[in-house]
Amino acid sequence: MSISPDSTFDANENLSSIKSNKGQPLLVMNEQLYKCNKKTARKKYWICIVSGCSMVVHIDENDVYLYRGKWDHHHESNADVIQTTHLRQQMKERVLNELTPIGIIYEEEMAKAPLSTASVALFPTNQEIHQTFVKARRKILPILP
Ligand SMILES: [Zn+2]
What we know:
Blueprint: E1 15-19, E2 25-29, E3 32-39, E4 43-48, E5 56-60, E6 65-68, H1 79-97, H2 102-112, H3 117-122, H4 126-140
Antiparallel strand pairs: 1-2, 2-3, 3-4, 4-5, 5-6
This protein binds zinc ion.
């Protein structure tokens, strides 16, 4: 039996990425969010987005997990933030790829999303998000006569 130096953690940490509202790439691992802190030719260094938390994750240039800090986050997971960011992204994608009215996309995606009551309360309303989506759509669609 071989003992890996990092045996307390699963080597196949569940990595994925999402884009923040500002279009910044964010790393998602175990329901926590990380922003890129430093990049070298062979490694990317990510740091937890919660201020005051210094959890880090290192991945290689092929996005393969290498290392994470040996301590824990002092705060709860960002599952809500991840879900709402993902939801927003999902909506935007449909807004840009479909001709479905924005209000309907909003309603449909909200209905599908497994959001907690708290996240729903924090998520922008249809009215709040509408203008943003109209602008995004206008950028790529020809103006209709
Ligand atoms: Zn953290």
